[in-house]
Amino acid sequence: LQSISKHLPSKKQTLFFSATIPPKIERLATETLHNPLFITVGTPNSSSVNVRHTVLWVEEEAKKKHLFTFLKDKDTFCPPVIIFVNSRKGTLLLAEAIDKACDVAAIALHGEMEQERRSAILSGFLAGKYEAVVATGVLARGLDLHNVKQVFIFDAPSTIDEFIHQ
């Protein structure tokens, strides 16, 4: 970002938008922008008041069993859903297992896919082609998916910012 800004005209308007602004980016903005203004909506590091959180602590080896129980129960399963995992391989394995074991149309989405493929999956999800998307954190950034009814965080994220985005 710094190398790009060196090639821009001195008179310009620069805007940053993010659901969260890590300290490193805030420092960068302070160092590179003229009189930066930070606008915060809501309470920093908190999730939406419209989100109801339910935490279920289970042993690692029982996670899949508990998730499948939710997905098979038509009283608790409310598609469309997103299930977050921490690895590309995890998205592929879990999506396939859900599709087979739960009779739920599930598909994997991760950052190593071409953008065109990710966009096609997202379009299919929004159109109702898939009931569940098993994704890495790539799906948590910069998207506001109003139609999503449930989010399962299958693998705990490593930071609070990741959790908030998910």
Automatic annotation (TrEMBL):
Protein origin, superkingdom: Eukaryota
TM ranges: none
Protein name: Helicase C-terminal domain-containing protein
Sequence ranges assigned to domain Helicase C-terminal in this UniProt record: 70-166
Source organism of the structure: Amphimedon queenslandica
Pfam families for the chain: Helicase_C (PF00271)
Cited PROSITE patterns: HELICASE_CTER (PS51194)
InterPro entries per record: Helicase_C-like, P-loop_NTPase
Gene3D superfamilies xref list: P-loop containing nucleotide triphosphate hydrolases
